Amino acid sequence: MRNKKSQFKKSSEFYNLIYKNKDSYSEAIYIDNFIKRFKPNTDHILELGCGTGRHLQEMLKLGYKVKGIDISAEMLQMIPKLEGLELECTNIVDFQSDKKFNVITALFHVVSYINDIDSLDSLFCNTKSNLSDGGLFIFDVWFTPAVMSIEPSIRVLEINNENYEITRIATPKIDYINNLVEVNYKFFIFDKNLNSNETFEEKHLMRHFSITEIDAIAKKHGFQNLVNEEWLTGKFPSNKTWGVVFVYKNG
Ligand SMILES: C[S@@+](CC[C@H](N)C(=O)[O-])C[C@H]1O[C@@H](n2cnc3c(N)ncnc32)[C@H](O)[C@@H]1O
Question: Is this prediction's pTM over 0.90?
Fold first, then answer.
């Protein structure tokens, strides 16, 4: 098995707070619509890079049985124990399941964390063999035309609630040759209850992709393209579209 470290070791505790404005319910309905359209009668879903389980918990409420896998034990620990929900701490690149799933998802840029071609190849190969015939692989990635045209810049996020004051500074370093962006996150946390400060840093290496690149690797592994569109809006991807969603059918 490939040895890859989790980038979310320290920030996992604050992940749900940082992304509290994400509408996980609407995102789950968006995925559910693809499932109803292309693979009705799906009962069992696998989510790759499930993180703190925000989609898993919504999919469970929609009536699916769900399994989530993630390389970060700290992220998985944030998920409450729920009936019908199975979790495993493992690398999605190497994951081989003993049962087949009708649908496999990787949501909120998880595939952009897989930034070398051998790992990507292995991810598609294993995902294909973990899917039933006609099963769906649904994922979103950072989209090269948008990354090149918008260009990542320094961003500051501030959160202030009854427990914490959090400042997160994201500083990107763009590698134009290899389609990579290294994002250095610096966190400043003030815990109001303990009256204590903490500072830590994390590096996230992100790969962006064109549609033709993703399509070439998917076709090589015997997937058939059903959808490429802007995440949630369904618009045709443009140089303003940071996240593009792909739906592929196995076979
Ligand atoms: C941006 S978070 C998305 C989490 C979740 N899908 C969501 O929508 O909130 C990316 C997740 O992918 C996981 N991840 C990145 N590389 C991975 C790998 N090779 N194997 C398993 N999980 C991975 C990280 O640990 C993290 O939980």
Answer: yes
Q: Which CATH class is domain 12-143+208-250?
A: alpha beta
- Which homologous superfamily does the CATH classification assign to the domain defined by 146-206? S-adenosyl-L-methionine-dependent methyltransferases (2.20.25.110)
Q: Whose CA is nearest to atom 17 of ligand 1?
A: 71
Residue-wise pLDDT tens for the chain (251 aa)? 455 777 788 899 999 999 999 999 999 999 999 999 999 999 999 999 999 999 999 999 999 999 999 999 999 999 999 999 999 999 999 999 999 999 999 999 999 999 999 999 999 999 999 999 999 999 999 999 999 999 999 999 999 999 999 999 999 999 999 999 999 999 999 999 999 999 999 999 999 999 999 999 999 999 999 999 999 999 999 999 999 999 999 99
| Residue 68 CB–ligand 1 contact under 6 Å | no
Is 31:46 a contact under the CB 8 Å cutoff?
A: no
Cα atoms found within 13 Å of the Cα of residue 76, Cβ hemisphere only: 18
Start and end residues for every CATH 2.20.25.110 domain found in the chain? 146-206
Return d(Cα 216, Cα 103) in angstroms, integer.
21
User: Residue type at 79?
Assistant: I
Considering only CA atoms, which residue is closest to atom 11 of ligand 1?
49
For atom 6 of ligand 1, the residue with the nearest CA is 50
